[in-house]
Amino acid sequence: MSNISIEFENISKQYRLGTIGTGTLTHDLNRWWHLMRGKEDPYLKVGEVNDRSIKATSDYVWALKDISFSVEQGEVLGIIGKNGAGKSTLLKILSRVTSPTTGSIKAKGRIASLLEVGTGFHSELTGRENIYMNGAILGMTRREIVSKFDEIVDFSGIEKYIDTPVKRYSSGMTVRLGFAVAAHLEPEILVVDEVLAVGDAEFQKKAIGKMKDVSQGGGRTVLFVSHNMTAVKSLCTKGLLLENGISTYSGSIDSTINRYIAGTRDSLRITNNVNQHIKTSEDNLVLEEIYISTNNEHGVLYIDEAFECCFKIDFKERIDNFNLSLSFCDEVGATVFVTTTAVVSCERGEKLFKCNIPANLLNTNLYSLILLLVKNSSQVLTRVDNALFFEMHEKGREGTYFEKFGGGIRPLLKWEII
Amino acid sequence: MNTAKDDDWDIVIKPKEKGIHLHLKEVWRYKDLLYLYVKRDFISTYKQTILGPLWFFIQPIFSTLIFTLVFGGIAQISTDGLPPMLFYMAGVLCWNYFTDCLSRSSGTFMGNAGVFSKVYFPRLVVPIAGLVSAVLKMFIQLLLFFSIYIYFLFQGSPIGVNSYVLLFPLLITMMAGIGFGIGIIISSVTIKYRDLNILFSFAIGLMMYITPVIYPLSAIPAKYGALKWVIQLNPLSSIFEAFRFGMLGTGNLSWGGLLYSSIFTVVVVLIGIVTFNKVERRFVDIV
What residue ranges do the domains of chain A occupy? Predict the structure, then answer.
């Protein structure tokens, strides 16, 4: 028996760009005229892929285009993507806040959605009254709210203010109360859109903990959107990657996140060349090229092959007593290790700095490099964040374990078994 | 892969639904929300006021007094031999009730845009809650009406309830229906093209003058036949007249007029529901 909980079939959503004005009326009339004659909506054919950074050439845009996937019962699906990729639109359609332009969604059970914290709070009403109101808006019955009332108040931590109008609350208190109500929903399908970043550190911890309980207990299906990869990674089991309204990848949450990170870096990737020369504030040197040199032809970096990170610098004048250092950082930006040159002096002219990365040092991660030029151990001449990105791969492995090994590095060490 | 039929699913989301869907079953599931909306209306309206619920009475009292003074006293418009106070109050109550129903329905989408764009619940809950609040408010104000009524009864005024008062539930239903229908039609037009907001707000104000609020139908001179025709075309006219006739014993009860109003109500409610269905699906994208 299949236990698919939600099925998305060719979901597309078209939006009109710009404001509503006289042009809209002509479009409306034209659309109506086409539909009256039994023809297709003329504006459904136009519309472009949703890339917010490119100037639009048509008035219509596909916020989502042909999204099809299914979610099994009990699965916690993380939907990730850049701003404007269509994540929230997808959740809005599933929450029935807006309807799809084409396609259909089928779901089993009640859907409760948490697209915003504290929806429908009325500022004149007290916290107590708003708990009832908000709970009811989110789909709880009065009986359910009554039975969970104390828990909600306790979770929010604002017991003292419960009979004060919400307009007297601080913004933090309002979101605490809003989240507390929402956290006590018990639907079969829960839709959560980036609402964990609420309140102070203490409350966020509580909120993530609560989300974990909600998603891991009782076979509930959860769809979760967040830009906090750590949260997504720790809460979700599966991932779906959206790029410009198109679903480009789905799979385990780890591989989806890696894919997402690789994708976001794609647009600013400097694998072999620096196109714009990076100068220092004093104009005394120009960073001309940053590249990786490998011995193999395919250009893929394997963990058991050495390669070099190269930096070509054009010195405009003699610089004394400086060193160049490289920080190797992992996906989340944590430094794995740092390596530096000796303190040197360079004459005017071009110089090439090569850092040899030996085989069997790095792990199968995405690495980013921070380049730092420091004079006299104190004065930063230049700092280039994300100077270089690269991904390390593995050539296949013997045995039956194919998952990733943990850790920032993966040195090949000598073992002795006596 | 699963190839289950539509009825195996609890929720099916599609671009367009055919026909009329009231989702009444769902509305029933959200009855607690409906109750809370009504409660919120009452609580929040008079929060942080000193006179509180007394405002329910003050507003009609003042309107009635002004009408009595201006239209009864200065303009000397006939009140069919009824005490002017009672006559105007009956009109004011009905008119307030109607505009309440109308504005609650027309404000459904604009007034709740924030909530509607973030969470789903059957949208119909909101206008229904609005209508329930309007009915309750009407009942509260009827208390005032009856206390003045009793006063005039003891004064020996020629007033008396007759059996047509039994039409009362039908009359308030019809007014609610017309208010709902027109309100929804207005809101469906105004959410996209706000120009019409301005037009409607004063059109409703003017509509009062072609409704027998401050005058009885019988007071229209015969030479203004066209005007009388326009007033009778107004579906509210026969309702207002029937209300006065039932409550006060004088008036122009016309079964034909009531039949016309009933048909009008049914038609406008149906159009309202169809429009509502359409708007509730598209509203979030165009508001």
Answer: 74-265, 285-403
| Residue written as token pair 């054009």 | A314
pLDDT tens for each residue of B166-218: 888 999 999 999 999 999 888 888 887 777 778 888 888 888 888 888 888 88
The percent of chain A in helix, strand and coil, each rounded to the nearest 5, is 25, 35, 40
Q: Kindly state the tokens that stand for A281.
A: 């504030």
Give B9 to chain A, closest Cα distance, Å: 5
In whole angstroms, give the CA distance from residue A11 to residue A95: 14
Residue from A88, A96, A195 to probe the interface with B (highest B Cβ count within 10 Å): A96
CATH superfamily of A74-265: P-loop containing nucleotide triphosphate hydrolases (3.40.50.300)
Q: Do the Cβ atoms of A113 and B40 come within 8 Å?
A: no
**Which positions 157-196 of A are in contact with B (Cβ < 8 Å)?**
165
Distance CA B105, CA B90 (A): 23
Tell me the nearest-neighbour CA distance from B140 into chain A, angstroms: 22
Contact flag A99-B281 (C-beta cutoff 8 Å): yes
* A98 at interface of B, judged by CB pairs closer than 8 A: yes
Instruction: Give the pLDDT band (50/70/90) at residue A416.
Output: very high
User: Does A133 contact B16 at a Cβ distance shorter than 8 Å?
Assistant: no
Residue B2 has pLDDT above 50, yes or no: no
How far apart are alpha carbons A298 and B264 in whole angstroms? 78
Q: What is the model's pTM?
A: 0.73
Over the stretch A136-166, which tens digit does the pLDDT of each residue have?
988 888 888 999 999 999 988 888 899 998 8
